Amino acid sequence: MLPRHVQRLGRDWITHVNGSQVFAFSSPAPTCMRWAGHCPWASFPLPVPVDSSANWRLPPFFGPWRQIQNSNWQLDNFAPNSCFHLPNPSMKAEGEEPLTKKRRLSSQLDSPALEGQNFSEQKEALCVSDSQDERSESNKKRNIKRHWEYFCQHSRTMKILESAETDQSNRECEAKFDFTVMSYNILSQNLLEDNSHLYKHCRQRLLIWTYRFPNILQEIKQLDADVLCLQEVQEDHYRKEIKSSLESLGYHCEYKMRTGRKPDGCAICFKTSKFSLISSNPVEFFRRDIPLLDRDNVGLVLLLQPKFPCKTNAAICIANTHLLYNPRRGDIKLTQLAMLLAEIASVAPQKNGTFCPIIICGDFNSVPGSPLYRFIKEGKLNYEGLAIGKVSGQEQFPRGQRILSIPIWPKKLGISQNCVYEIRQQQKEEDAGEKMEEATLDNTKEIVIASEKLSSKLQHHFKLSSVYSHYFPETGLPEVTTCHSRSAVTVDYIFYSAANDDSVAQPGTEDSLHGGLKLLGRLALLTEKDLWTVNGLPNENNSSDHLPLLAEFRLVER
């Protein structure tokens, strides 16, 4: 028979275990041999069997003494690194908050992460202060490794190659201007909260804007692109933080907000040390008088002047957009794309009749190989009989089965099937003596335009290549630009008009323009498996659900 105080210890201990306490064996004995507040008189750890699991509990149907008697409790089984934590917070995964901390957080936040509610400043301060303690350790453990892929010998600074014996008056200056372009959907905080079901795999503290923005800004600093094309830039964040932060890094910023209730938009920012602004041209895809165009997506087209040391008339057209997401509305996507291409065609012409070099960035909400993607790269698309749900290729089994109408958009949009603005007819003279020949000519033009729009063939005049190949040649696995709880695909792109000697460009682009762009390198993308090793996107270090795309180009102007 055991002494009474030992039996009492057994009864108290069994009651404590049945009260949902947990054993833990992860900490060294010197730091954790303690008996928490329930039994302050017990200054020693109870012996624990070595082969017990961390979450082992005694069966509740045994009596107090019988439990101890049947559990092979011997001091020989006590391991130096095994100890008794009552109560000890159980952790499901390395780096996760203890249960006691979670209860403390949940008592203040009192809801699942982002489930249908806005984040207050108090929540942000709580989560950020908690995250700052763990950020340095997280950075070491969970960091996405991406490398540069180079296609030719170059440096990441501007190169000027001139003849050894220069005669500025008789010889033309040949300049090779190297610059980098980034396309990055930074995930609007408003959209994140409205679509919280996409981020159930993320801890709440990682989804707070005050945690996310420093990470996004740090990425921009590290990648140090000369031109930034950003999507989902929330207007209030742009006005209060983003613009001033980027200007402090030497960027000039142009911004176009969406026209509806969504408070985000597109921004193009460029380093003033490399470029000067010629013109800024926003594009609104919403048209009140056209039912088809009832969505509030936007685009932005800049014409930039590179700062060559020698005098030149070279210019670069940079376009940025975020097309409609809805996989079942391919008709709207194609029309929005046509409107963007028409604006580029009005901005990019040069005096010699060709187009200046063009770069088109953005989130196109379309996958590689889809009809919309092929239209961008090949410059043509016959959409006769094409279902609207198949245009973007986002769904394996498209739900949008309606066939695209011919033409897709109405005549009053003012854009032809060649994706250029139609020449607007001059207003008829009010003079009653207008010549009959002019009226007949006007009628003939209308007939020609009407017959053209009955065609099911779309075209554009830019011969574009994609910076990325979308599949890894060694494994055949697809590259991924966005990864969240629902999907991991490529929807972000950088398209460019290739120079004659660009070996990376697709066949058929050799005659695209005079001079042009040569792709020097790109920041490699990752597979879906790679991204899930860091718990997908967003994560501790990457605070958007998209990866930044980055490419280096060389502009050759003679």
UniProtKB/TrEMBL annotation:
GO molecular function ontology, one term from the record: mRNA 3'-UTR binding
Gene Ontology CC terms: Cajal body; mitochondrial matrix
Any single Pfam family the record assigns to this protein: Exo_endo_phos
Superkingdom in the source lineage: Eukaryota
Domain (Protein angel homolog 2 N-terminal): residue spans on this chain: 1-171
Residue ranges crossing the lipid bilayer per the database entry: none
One GO term of the biological process aspect: mitochondrial mRNA 3'-end processing
Domain Endonuclease/exonuclease/phosphatase residues, every copy: 182-498
Name of the protein described by the UniProt record: Angel homolog 2
Organism of origin: Coturnix japonica (Japanese quail)
Taxonomic lineage: Eukaryota, Metazoa, Chordata, Craniata, Vertebrata
Gene name for this UniProt entry: ANGEL2
